Structure formats: structure tokens, C-alpha cells
Amino acid sequence: FPNSQKYDPGSANCDKLVNGQGTSHAINPVYTYNEPGIYSVTLSATNILGDTVSITKSGIIEVFESPVAQFTIKPVMVYIPGGKIFTNNQSFGAFSYFWDFGDGQTSTDFEPVHTYQTEGLYDIMLAVTNSSGCVDTARVASAVRVEKGAEILLPNAFTPGKEGPGSGDGENDVFLPLMRGVTEFQIMVFNRWGELLFESKSPQVGWDGYFQGKLCQQDVYVYKIVAKYENGNVITRMGDIHLMR
């Protein structure tokens, strides 16, 4: 294109000629505009005798300003359960947003907080759109790593020793959860009438099935566990435990 024209609101004829820009000698050129505006296109053709004919089509191209998508996230490693990431949307020139967190979950919030449920390495993508319908996309590969960092596994039955407190053989004779990534812990055991039979705040001390020095009868008991994970999340679990004799 020998000449390009751009819309100028301050011009009487609305088309301002810009010389010497966007030229090409190709038969079917491809050209990229770098600034928004309304542009005209002029084509000049010359034959072997040197005769030149030109044609100009005014204002046939309108270029819209493109939005820019960019973001950061933190932290870049989270632990589950409860692993959350926080987004920092640094995009500009946009009014709508679409996030893809790589685990099948999406969001249209400006700065969403996302919780992962499964271990893995995830890409994160942000697509932004402006009022003209122009779209820009930013993608960060392997943006966040998700690992199991805290876990509580609970049995549903145990068989305490019959020769007194602590007399078991170590084979399922104490009711104690298996835990990982737990910094604070409390367990309470109640009978069916709500009487507190056992309480411990040590992850190494569980219920041996005794209350006031006597082995409790075979029955179903209720437990309540409050635990704080390394990531700061606090969980409460309640359920039943079967004491087998």
C-alpha cells in the first residue's frame, strides 16, 4: 500500500493522508496495522509502457484497539485439600474476562480465587475482550503445581486390648487417625448419651477403648476431630467408630 489513511476527528474531511507508510509491491499483500483508526487503501498499477493508473478506496478499513491480557498468580505451589491460588489481573483495555485453570474449571470474575482438588501441574489461561469484541489471550504453562500436603484417614472400627489400658498388641487396638500435614489436632470420643469418654490433643495419642480404667462395652461411639493443616485451613470431622470386643 503506497499510502494509508487514518481517521482524524479534527480534520474537516475525516480522512488524513499518511504518506510513505504501509507500501508493498506484492500482487496480494498482507499488512498489519499497529494503531487503531479508519484507513483508506490506494492501489497503483503500471504497465510495461510505464503508464500508471491509481484507485483509492477511502475509509474501507477500520482498526480497533486491542486489549492486552496479562496476569500473575500466587502461590505457584499449593497443597490439597484446601489448596487455593490468588490471581492478580494486570490486563488493560478490556471489560470481560475468561479464566481457564487447567483442571476443567473456569471463571469470569476479574480476579478469582481458585481451589484445586487434584494433584497435578496446571496451565492457566486468561482471555480478555474489549467493547469492540477484540480478544487477547495470555497463557502460562505449568503455572501452578498441586500436591497432597495434608490428609486425615479414619478407621471405622478397632479392637482394644482386654488386659487393661495399653495392653493391645498394636494391631488396630487404638482408635487414632492417620494424618499428614497436620499442625494442630484434637480428638474427642463420646458414648451414645453424649458423655465424653476420651480427649487428646496429641497426634500420637489415640483412644484405647477404656474409660476410667474399665474397658468400654462393644458399641458404636461418636468422635469429633478438629485439625489445622499446614496451609492454615481448619477442618472439623464427626462420625462413628465401632468398638469391637
Question: Could you list some keywords that capture this structure?
Answer:
245 residues; mainly beta; five-stranded mixed β-sheet; 21 strands; disordered N terminus
Secondary structure elements and their pairing?
Blueprint: E1 3-7, E2 15-19, E3 37-46, E4 52-63, E5 71-74, E6 77-80, E7 84-89, E8 96-100, E9 106-107, E10 113-115, E11 120-129, E12 135-148, E13 151-153, E14 157-158, E15 178-180, E16 182-190, E17 196-200, E18 210-211, E19 214-215, E20 219-229, E21 234-243
Parallel strand pairs: 6-12, 14-21
Antiparallel strand pairs: 1-2, 3-4, 5-7, 7-10, 8-9, 8-11, 11-12, 13-15, 16-17, 16-20, 18-19, 20-21
Write a structural description.
With 245 residues, the chain is mainly beta. It contains no helices and 21 strands. A hairpin with a 7-residue loop joins strand 1 (3-7) and strand 2 (15-19). The chain is rod-shaped and about 115 Å long. The N and C termini lie far apart (93 Å).
